[in-house]
Amino acid sequence: MQLMLFQEYKFSSTNSKKAKPFLKWAGGKTQILSEIDKRLPRELKNGKKMRYIEPFVGSGAVLFHLLSNYNIEKAYIIDINENLINLYKVIKNNVCDLIEYLKILERKFLNSNGEERKKIYYSKRKEFNKLKNNKIKKAALLIFLNRTCYNGLYRVNSKGEFNVPFGRYKNPKILDEENLINVSLALKNVEILCDDFEISKNFIDENTFVYIDPPYRPLSNTSNFTSYFNNTFDDNEQIRLKNFFDFITNKGAKILLSNSDPKNTDPNDNFFDELYKNYIIERILAKRMINSKGSKRGYIYELLIRNYYE
């Protein structure tokens, strides 16, 4: 099945260049890619082959941008979210089976009315939370839920259960077959790991570019997306991450890190300015894409922190 679909699609070596994120994701970096691109290491921009590591891969916007435009000889992506990592692995290794599951889910959902869609959503959410052994079906359900839930959020409760409510979309695109196949091709030389970010120490040397996009430090009590897995990325974790930043700096890696800017809400909050005072800190404008109130989806400052000059 996998080979047959690949042949029907008439793959060329350029298909992987078209890969783009396959999930909606809180904090996804598509809208600030141009700012990130401006600050990439000079060696990478000049065509040098480099290793790429992303310890909090999320939706992979930076990953796919680099794979499409730069000379990445080997990439490692890591995330502690096992459902997300399972999805990456299924797309890499079993994309055709995944597509067949999604065809069935999409057809049933789009052929139903509003109340029926709501029932289907909660039924599939329950199934997703209980499913243990079928990795391909689990991956398909994650895409389905991501495309049909409220605001495209990924959030879990203390039991690790996905608990985002139903989102009322008229015609959600549940299956993007072409992009899934392009992503599968793009991932062929990518190592995919479910682990803590510090595992990436094992793969980093002086010819490595590392992009770090951790769960953001919340700007308020109501903007906390740091529990997208069933643990909390608090200030102690941010400090542990900074120690990791120091460690891989000493290994010679080029590192770019993004995070929220606490000065958006408290001009006297110098948490990151003090924590990363020995590095280059820049503030860029970014659009807040996910908020419960549309009126609050505006532009705010985010931080880009690096250990090298452009």
UniProtKB/TrEMBL annotation:
The keyword Zinc does not apply. Keywords: Methyltransferase, S-adenosyl-L-methionine, Transferase. This is Site-specific DNA-methyltransferase (adenine-specific). Belongs to the N(4)/N(6)-methyltransferase family. It catalyses: a 2'-deoxyadenosine in DNA + S-adenosyl-L-methionine = an N(6)-methyl-2'-deoxyadenosine in DNA + S-adenosyl-L-homocysteine + H(+). GO terms for biological process: DNA restriction-modification system; methylation; mismatch repair. S-adenosyl-L-methionine binds at residues 25, 29, 79, 213. SUPFAM superfamilies: S-adenosyl-L-methionine-dependent methyltransferases (SSF53335). One of its GO terms (molecular function) is site-specific DNA-methyltransferase (adenine-specific) activity. It comes from the Bacteria. Gene3D superfamilies: Adenine-specific Methyltransferase, Domain 2 (1.10.1020.10), Vaccinia Virus protein VP39 (3.40.50.150). PROSITE patterns: N6_MTASE. It is an enzyme of class 2 (transferase). Its EC number is 2.1.1.72. The keyword Hydrolase does not apply. The lineage of its organism: Bacteria, Thermotogati, Thermotogota, Thermotogae, Thermotogales.
